[in-house]
Amino acid sequence: MPSNKRPAALSVRGLQKAIGGRTIVEDITFDVCEGEVFGFLGPNGAGKTTTIRMIVGLIKPTNGQVQIGGFDLRQNFIEAMRCVGCIVENPELYKYMTGWQNLEHFANMLGDVTDERIEEVVRLVKLENRVHDKVRTYSLGMRQRLGIAQALLGRPKLLILDEPTNGLDPAGIRELREFIRKLAREEGLAVFVSSHLLSEVQMMCDRIAIIGNGKILRVATVEEIVQSEINRIEWTVEPRELAVRVIEEEVGDGRVDLLGVNKVVATLNQAQTAHVNERLIAAGVKLYSVQLQGQLEELFLEITGGDSIA
C-alpha cells in the first residue's frame, strides 16, 4: 500500500517481462500516489524503459498487474489509458504550427477537450504570452512545458515523464523541477519521473525506486535517504590541515577526500558527525559549513554495486 496513505494513481504488482526465454524485468512492485513525485532510477539495461513501456501499454507484460486510476490495464485498457499523460524525452510537436494549434490538434484526437481546457493548461504551464507563436521559435524548456500541457489536456491522474530535463540548461532544469512539484502539490497529480540525474531526482521527488538487473532494489522516501544512518559529509573549514587530522582520527581507516582549498569530505554516521563537529570547534578550527553530499548517489552505488547510471 502507498506509504503516505493517499490513493494510488498507479499500482504495479509483480510485473514481469520475458523475451525469448530471457527475463528482462521481474517482480516489479510499487505504487505512485496522488499528489507525489516518484523517481525511477537504474543503471543501463536495468529494465527502466521496459517497465515504462508496459505501464503505458506499448508492450504486454508476461505476468503481473498494472492499475491506473483504479482501472486494470488488461481488463479496462481504454479507461486506464485515459488516466495517463506521458512524455518520453522530447515531446512530439509540430514545429511549423503554433503552440495553440498543437494543443488544438491533440485535443481533436482526444475528442472531448474544450477550448476552455486548452486555455486552462496554457495558463498552468505559463505559456500565455507565447502560445500563438510557432513552436520552432520556442526554447527547449518551452517545448517541454508545451508537451506537458498537451499531456494534461485529458485531465490525467498520472503524468509519466521520461528524462524530462534532457538538454535543458541549469535555469531550465530548475524551472521544470519547480513546475513538476507544483503540479503534484497544487493539482494533486501523481508524477512518475524516470531520470539519470541523481541530484535532480533528489531535489524533485518525494519517493524513489531504484531498479537493477530487472528488479526493484529499494523504494524509499528522499527523507529516509537523507536521514540514513551513514552519510557523506562535507565540511568547509580553516585551517584544513588541522581539520583533516581531527576527522581522520574519527574515521580510522575510512577515506577522507579534499575538495577545493578548504573543503573536507568523509563518510560518517550521525553520532560520529556530531562528535567530529564538537572536536573541530574545540581544536580551534573555523567551521563555516557542514552539509550532506550526494546521499542518493551513495545509496545508488551501494545498492547497484557501482553500476553506471542510465
Question: What topology does this entry show?
Answer:
Elements (H helix, E strand, L loop, with lengths): L7 E12 L2 E12 L3 E5 L6 H8 L7 E6 L2 E2 L4 H5 L2 E5 L10 H12 L4 H10 L15 H13 L5 E5 L7 H18 L2 E5 L3 H7 L2 E6 L2 E7 H5 L3 E9 L1 H12 L4 E4 L3 E7 H13 L3 E7 L2 H10 L6
Parallel strand pairs: 3-8, 3-9, 6-7, 7-8
Antiparallel strand pairs: 1-2, 1-4, 4-5, 9-10, 11-13, 11-14, 12-13
Helix pairs in contact: 4-5, 5-6, 9-10
Low-confidence stretches: none
Q: Supply the CATH class of the largest domain.
A: Alpha Beta
What is the CATH third-level topology name of the largest domain?
Rossmann fold
Helix content: 25-40%
At the fourth level of CATH, the homologous superfamily of the largest domain is P-loop containing nucleotide triphosphate hydrolases
Domain ABC transporter: 10-238
Keywords: ATP-binding, Nucleotide-binding, Transport
GO molecular function: ATP binding
Organism: Tumebacillus lacus
Word description of this protein:
The protein is of the alpha/beta class. The protein has 2 domains: 8-223, Rossmann fold (3-Layer(aba) Sandwich); 228-304, Alpha-Beta Plaits. Helices cover 36% and strands 30% of the residues. It contains 11 helices and 14 strands. A hairpin with a 2-residue loop joins strand 1 and strand 2 (22-33). The longest helix has 18 residues, at 170-187. It is globular, with a radius of gyration of 23 Å.
